[in-house]
Amino acid sequence: MPLINALTFLLAIVRPPDHGWAVEALMKAHGIPGMSVAVIDDFKIVWTKGYGVTRKGGTTPVTPYTLFLAGSISKPVAAVAALSLVERGSLTLDRDVNAQLRSWHVPENEFDRTQKVTLERILDHTAGFTGGDFFPGYARGASVPSLLQILDGLSPANNPPIRVGYVPGTRWQYSGAGYLVAQQLMIDATNQPFPQIARDAVFEPLGMDRSTFEQPLPEDLAKAAASGTLMNGDAVDGGWHVQPEMAAGGLWTSPSDLAKLAIEIAEAARGRSNRVLSQRMALAMISPHWSSGVINILGTRESPDSMGYGFFVGDRHRFGHIGGNIGYQATMVMFGDTGKGAVIMTNDDIGLQAGNEVLNRIAQLYHWNYAAPPPP
User: Fold this and answer.
1) How far is Cα 355 from Cα 332, in angstroms, rounded to an integer?
2) Strand order in the sheet with 318-325
3) d(CA 226, CA 359)
4) Could you tell me the CATH superfamily of domain 20-365?
5) Which residues make beta-bridge pairs with 312?
6) Among 63, 70, 69, which residue's Cα sits nearest to residue 35?
7) Where does 201-242 show beta strands of DSSP type E?
8) Cα–Cα distance between 150 and 129 in angstroms, integer?
9) Taking a C-beta distance cutoff of 8 angstroms, is the pair 8, 227 a contact?
10) Chain segment 12-34, per-residue pLDDT in tens
11) Which of 15, 118, 168, 181 has the most CB atoms in a 10 Å sphere around its CB?
12) What pLDDT, in 10s, does the model give residues 157-170?
C-alpha cells in the first residue's frame, strides 16, 4: 500500500466522519465529562474517538485508549471465557455446578432439590439466583472482600448471601449473583485467578490489550483510566470503586477492545473465525434461549429482549449488552448478519442519556434500522 494511502486509511480508523454531530453539545447538555466511541461496519472497526475529559473538571482528554469500567458488559465477556473452557473440556454446560465446584458450593434448599444450578442456566440467567443485580463495589482504600466472602455475604462484603430463590430452569431473572458462581467455577476448574483465565481465553487471542479484570486496577493502568461521575455531578471519591465481583461487573476496557470481541463472535458465528469459540458455540451464544418469560432452548420464539449466553439477543443476529458501575455507563450492540455495530463508554452515572443519542445517530448514518432502548 502506498504511504499516502496507508496514512489516509489510518486516519479514517481513528477519526469519525464529519456529519455535523454535536457530540460535545450533547455531553454538555447532560453533564457528561467523557465519552469514548468505536463504530463497526462490515466486520471492521471503521472509526474510534474520545470526547471530553477523563475526570470532571480535569483537562486530560479522553482518547480511544482510555479505560472505563464496563459494568454488566463484563458478563458476556466472562461468558466467552466460560464457554471456551467448556470447549476445552474443563467445564460442562449441563452438569450440576456443585459437582464441579471445590472451594465453595451452592447451598441446597427447597428450590434446587430436583432441578440443579448449571453453567448453562447461569449464563442465560435461569439458574434460580435472585438478587445481586448490581454490586456497588468498594471505595479505594477500603477493605475488599474475597470472592468466597461475597458468595456467603460475609463481612466486609456489602451484599446478602448468594442463594437460589426459585426452581432453576423454570423462569428467567437477571442476576449478577450467578455470574459470581461462574467466576468461582472457572477458578476451581483451572486453578488460576480469574483475570488470568480471561486474559488467556479472550484478551490475548483477540489482541484486547486495553482490557483487564484485575481488581484493584494496577497503578500502571490506573494512569489511563477515566474517573467516574455520580448522578448529582460529583466526582466519585478516589476516581472509582474496586469491583471484586469481576465476572458480574469488574471489567476495565475500551470501546475498541469490546468492538474486537463483538466482531470475533459475529465472525465465529458465520464460520469465518475460531480464535476463542467454535461456530457452534458462538451461534449458541447469540441465539435466544429465553423469550417472553419462557425458556426456549430451541430459540423458536424470538423477541427484542431474548437472552443468549451472556448477551441479550434479537433479530438479524443482533447481540449486545449495557453496563453500569458507580460513576459509569456503557452500551454495546452488534448485528451479526451485516457486521455493523458500536460501543460507547462514558464516565458518568447517566452517561447513556447522551450515549444513546449518539448511538441512534450512528444507527441512522450506517442504516441499522435500530433505536436504542431507554437507558436505565
Assistant:
1) 11
2) 44-52, 34-41, 340-346, 328-335, 318-325, 312-313, 306-307, 290-291, 294-295
3) 20
4) DD-peptidase/beta-lactamase superfamily (3.40.710.10)
5) 307, 320
6) 63
7) 241-242
8) 14
9) no
10) 334 455 544 689 999 999 999 99
11) 181
12) 999 999 999 999 99
Residue type, 69: L
Residue with cell 456503557: 330
| CA dihedral (7, 8, 10, 15) positive or negative | positive
Q: What cell numbers appear for 175 in the block?
A: 442476576
**Amino acid letter, 265:** I
Q: What is the DSSP letter of 96?
A: B
The CA distance from 354 to 375, in Å, is: 10
d(CA 209, CA 147): 25
pTM beyond 0.90: yes
Helix (H, G, I), strand (E, B) or coil at 236: coil
C-alpha cell at 300: 423458536
Cα distance between residue 321 and residue 312, in whole Å: 6
Q: Give the Cβ contact number of residue 221 at 10 Å.
A: 15
